[in-house]
Amino acid sequence: MEQGEAAPPAAEEKGGEEEDDFGYRLFPDRNKKPQSFLVRSLFTFHNRCQLMLRMTLDTNPYAQLLLEAMKQSGCTVFNDRHFSCENCDGCVSGGFDSATSQIVLCQNNIRHQSHMNRVVTHELIHAFDHCRAHVDWFKNVKHLACSEIRAANLSGDCTLMNEIARFKFGLKGHHQTCVRDRAIRSILAVRKVSKETAEKAVDEVFDTCFNDLEPFGRIPHSKTDAKRAYKDFQNRDRYNANL
């Protein structure tokens, strides 16, 4: 999550004296009855969100590669089913809800196309991980940490331009530092754990998960890199089909 993207997996059954917090407080529309199409169409935020989402899915190479990879893994993504434009807490831009296999896009916080591209990519990486692996989003903080590391590393969250926009200027190893910091922040946003627990989880899985570059095969530092990765992915699929 950026202070921005959160991944709140499904809530468990309530039990004990204190209800677990899985980050759903950040997404208040999750438990509301869906509004009618007519009502939703009257809100500019919703219309804008839908238009930007369509643009991302149609033109963004990061998203296109992830959609193709998920389809090949048996998890085809459908726009109307797997994306939901909703109002969220002011500090987040999106999330992945594993209970519904649905990506939440925060229509009140995503205001430009490049931001939408990054949020969709970040959350599709969580969805891809959910599809290909038995991720225990609720009880194993290392699993959550791994997916957050991958999302920060591969989505463009930590590109040089984005970091400069945050007034963070690169030193040697700055990309890795950015990925680590953002993964820790994501965990803290959606889990009631201490900062020390989040840091320990991230550090214990960092090398393995940072070097897991599927399905890109490389760290895509730009759209050009993502286009090359998408082309390589398509060629890899054709090569494997001919074996």
UniProtKB/TrEMBL annotation:
Keywords: Hydrolase, Metal-binding, Metalloprotease, Protease. Residues 1-25 are annotated as: Disordered. GO terms for cellular component: mitochondrion. GO terms for molecular function: metal ion binding; metalloendopeptidase activity. The keyword Cytoplasm does not apply. One of its GO terms (biological process) is mitochondrial protein processing. InterPro entries: Peptidase_M76_ATP23. Residues 1-10 have a biased composition (Low complexity). The keyword Protease applies. Its EC number is 3.4.24.-. Belongs to the peptidase M76 family. This is Mitochondrial inner membrane protease ATP23. It comes from Burhinus bistriatus. The gene is Atp23.
